[in-house]
Specification:
The chain is built from 8 helices and 24 strands. By secondary structure, it is of the alpha+beta class.
């Protein structure tokens, strides 16, 4: 029993060093020199000085903080100020008697390098003052030296200062492009309204908010003024208050550090995902069949559908018209979606109409569908485009006219 206990404890010790095949490594222990490099001893050195190290490599300096939980936070210097620090797992192993392997999942912040990016350090010597290694893939020298907390904090501050300066210089362009349209969401991340920020050639800024009010889409427009003189935020002040489900909005704040757009009401958030993201989701395997709601909808679509309509998840996609009356089959119409990210609009072009299962292939059925559902089909393919937005759980999608009052929703 005593012999078995010692063997088990030895295996656990090896496992704690990040060795994945403890039996193989146990066998090799007997053949290695007493002067071999041991991962367990390297780990003690690595975690000395609170695990803080720095590496000058490929013209940049990288800062690492290793934890005893086998997690490491790595950050590049200001050369890569647009890139975030990376927190990932690290692993220790050995390669023969003279090499210890230190691997970072994904390479940590080294992944940002355009050339000679590494994820494994091949360590050939180590002390409290220096870790001498080379990259496993490209073989270039990689020497780590201790870093102080002050150095790490100073690097982070330099990165923040450069990011703020950059975002401030790009604020107007970002507000005209990446952030110029999106969705207002409530505290439950439910849909409230679509918004569009625009700026004409004379530098006149305008806000358009489209929401569902009393069963109709209401479009509210107002001028906005943009102030980029602040140190932390650009402020976009609305020309008038915009009321949405009890919230009163009158400002956007564009934060220079985070690059986020916020409102004056903390319970109302801005979802700045693009129309192209919605189209990509619709065409992906994550899309599920959504059934058009025939009750909670614009009055033009209430009680007018002879049967159920579905935006299905087949490949290719279909608007499925379920059979009714004497119609003998399920009719499919192939929608082709495209997106205009500048305006946030999605456009549908109807393709082939056909008998989905080939039961009848009756042209009279096709004509019946096109006649009875003409108003809905025309709305969907409007030349003015549509605003699509989903609730956070993607169970409900709202589809609003970009210019008129019609809308509908569909549920998964």
């Amino acid at each position: 029993m005593k012999k078995h206990t010692i063997l088990l404890m030895s295996c656990l010790a090896l496992s704690s060093c990040g060795m994945t095949d403890v039996w193989k490594d146990w066998e090799s222990q007997g053949t290695l020199s007493e002067n071999r490099l041991r991962p367990s001893e390297f780990e003690k050195v690595l975690l000395n000085n609170s695990g803080r190290w720095k590496l000058s490599y490929e013209g940049s300096t990288f800062y690492f903080t290793f934890g005893d939980d086998y997690m490491v936070v790595s950050a590049p210097d200001e050369t890569y100020f647009l890139k975030n620090p990376v927190e990932t797992d690290y692993h220790l192993d050995f390669d023969g008697a003279s090499k210890v392997l230190l691997s970072l999942d994904g390479g940590g912040a080294l992944q940002y390098l355009s050339e000679n990016a590494e994820h494994t350090f091949v360590v050939t010597s180590f002390s409290a003052d220096k870790i001498v290694a080379s990259g496993e893939t490209y073989g270039k020298e990689m020497i780590l030296t201790p870093a102080t907390l002050a150095e790490i904090n100073a690097n982070e501050q330099r990165r923040k200062d450069m990011l703020v300066a950059y975002n401030k210089s790009q604020a107007l362009n970002s507000l005209k492009t990446q952030l110029n349209n999106g969705v207002f969401r409530n505290s439950s991340y439910g849909f409230m309204a679509h918004y569009l920020i625009s700026c004409d050639e004379e530098n006149n800024w305008k806000l358009k908010v489209s929401s569902i009010v009393d069963g109709r889409v209401k479009h509210v427009e107002c001028p906005i003024t943009v102030d980029t003189t602040g140190d932390e935020d650009a402020i976009l002040a609305f020309g008038k208050d915009v009321a949405l489900n009890g919230a009163v909005l009158n400002k956007f704040y564009y934060n220079y550090l985070s690059g986020d757009l916020k409102t004056n009401d903390g319970s109302v958030t801005c979802d700045t995902r693009k129309a192209s993201d919605i189209v990509a989701w619709y065409n992906s395997s994550n899309w599920g069949t959504h059934v058009v709601d025939q009750n909670d909808t614009h009055q033009d679509f209430k009680g007018v559908f002879p049967s159920q309509l579905e935006f299905d998840d087949r490949d290719p996609r279909n608007l499925v018209v379920c059979p009714w009356s004497s119609m003998g089959s399920y009719i499919g119409i192939k929608p082709m979606l495209s997106a205009d990210n500048e305006t946030g609009r999605i456009f549908i072009k109807w393709g082939e109409i056909y008998d989905m299962f080939g039961w009848n292939n009756n042209p009279d059925d096709y004509a019946l569908v096109q006649r009875e559902d003409e108003k809905f089909l025309s709305f969907c393919s409007s030349a003015d485009g549509l605003y699509w937005s989903c609730d956070d759980n993607t169970q409900t999608i709202y589809v609003l006219s970009a210019t008129g009052e019609q809308w509908f929703k569909m549920k998964r």
